[in-house]
């Protein structure tokens, strides 16, 4: 299996959409920004599922996914300030919580393993989906509450990722949860003792 798999191409597409999203934000194209952001989040939801379904999971794929996530989340934070400054000011706590929850686990991974981690935990997947839905509802003027709840989920997911980084001996990709890591470590200790 080479690097040019469909899941990897979707991650590359998402990574490539980051500069376009930034250009749309700088030119104040709100509607086009929302549509492209929706497409980026859709590819994020699909690439991992396709990789597992097609048997095309790889370390490269996990890293591409993480790099694309960092690029999209960074551009989204910048774009929110540019396109919806009043909304960001009124919802600063939830926006800050989401931004910090994506930045701190990445920094923890860089400090511990000298690379971005690619855990893709179940809680992170739920938090990302909730954040996307909440963000869309907030930007479309429907309600801010889904985004506020998503911010809470994002913080919990970040705490779990930081804890995983703290207990792992070496960096791994595609970790289901902290509970799974701890269970595997207990089983490994038992096997070594036998």
Key terms for this structure?
single chain; mainly alpha; 194 residues
Topology:
Blueprint lengths: L5 H21 L3 H24 L5 H25 L1 H6 L1 H22 L8 H18 L5 H23 L10 H16 L1
Helix pairs in contact: 1-2, 1-3, 2-3, 2-6, 3-5, 5-7, 6-7
* Mean pLDDT figure: 91
Helical proportion?
over 70%
How would you sum up the global shape? Answer: globular
One letter per element, helices H and strands E, the order comes to HHHHHHHH
Beta-strand percent range: under 5%
CA(first)-CA(last) distance: 37 Å
Q: What's the assembly state of these chains?
A: single chain
Biggest sheet features: none
Question: Explain this structure to me?
Answer:
The protein is an all-alpha fold and 194 residues long. Helix content is 80%, strand content 0%. It contains eight helices and no strands. α1 packs parallel to α3, α2 packs antiparallel against α3 and α6 packs antiparallel against α7. The mean pLDDT is 91.
Task: Report a brief summary of the structure.
The protein is mainly alpha-helical.
């Amino acid at each position: 299996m080479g690097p040019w798999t469909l899941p990897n191409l979707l991650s590359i597409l998402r990574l490539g959409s980051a500069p376009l999203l930034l250009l749309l934000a700088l030119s104040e194209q709100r509607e086009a920004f929302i549509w492209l952001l929706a497409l980026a989040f859709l590819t994020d939801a699909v690439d991992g599922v396709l990789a597992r379904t097609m048997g095309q999971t790889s370390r490269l794929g996990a890293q591409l996914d993480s790099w694309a996530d960092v690029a999209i989340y960074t551009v989204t934070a910048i774009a929110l300030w540019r396109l919806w400054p009043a909304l960001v000011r009124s919802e600063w706590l939830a926006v800050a919580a989401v931004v910090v929850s994506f930045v701190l686990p990445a920094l923890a991974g860089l400090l511990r393993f000298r690379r971005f981690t690619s855990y893709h935990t179940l809680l992170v997947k739920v938090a990302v989906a909730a954040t996307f839905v909440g963000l869309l509802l907030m930007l479309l003027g429907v309600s801010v509450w889904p985004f506020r709840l998503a911010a809470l989920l994002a913080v919990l997911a970040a705490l779990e990722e930081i804890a995983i980084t703290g207990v792992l001996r070496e960096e791994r990709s595609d970790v289901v949860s902290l509970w799974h890591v701890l269970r595997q470590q207990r089983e490994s200790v038992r096997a070594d003792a036998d």
